[in-house]
Write a structure and sequence with these properties.
The protein is mainly α. 45% of the residues lie in helices and 11% in strands.
Length: 113
């Protein structure tokens, strides 16, 4: 199981929309808008929360992006089993404390009953 400590996002700074690098014309540079860069900033924001949960509206305003970009990130992270939705706009790190063998043995026991 993947854990946050393996991802090393907890040591990255959380740049807000006002600290994003810009081109000479004043628009944000393309690299700062990339999904990879945004995912790193999102994970850092989530890691910095006290209870390992994050309100998606807060994330949108803090990162300065549209909600659809946040949904792109959460859909992938949820798909690979790292986060889960607790309510419509609240996500948290998924508890992966159990290994797959113990989960499989629990399922087997339930089947037998």
């Amino acid at each position: 199981s993947l854990s946050l400590s393996r991802l090393h996002y907890h040591s990255l700074p959380i740049p807000g929309p006002d600290t994003t690098p810009t081109l000479s014309g004043g628009s944000r540079c393309r690299a700062s808008k990339s999904l990879g860069s945004l995912t790193g900033r999102f994970c850092t924001l989530l890691a910095s929360s006290e209870d390992s949960s994050l309100d998606l509206n807060y994330a949108c305003s803090k990162l300065g992006v549209a909600k659809r970009r946040i949904y792109d990130i959460t859909n992938v992270l949820e798909g690979v089993g790292l986060i889960e939705k607790t309510t419509k706009n609240l996500i948290r790190w998924k508890d992966n404390s159990g290994d797959s063998e113990s989960a499989n043995s629990s399922a087997e026991k339930k089947k037998k009953k």
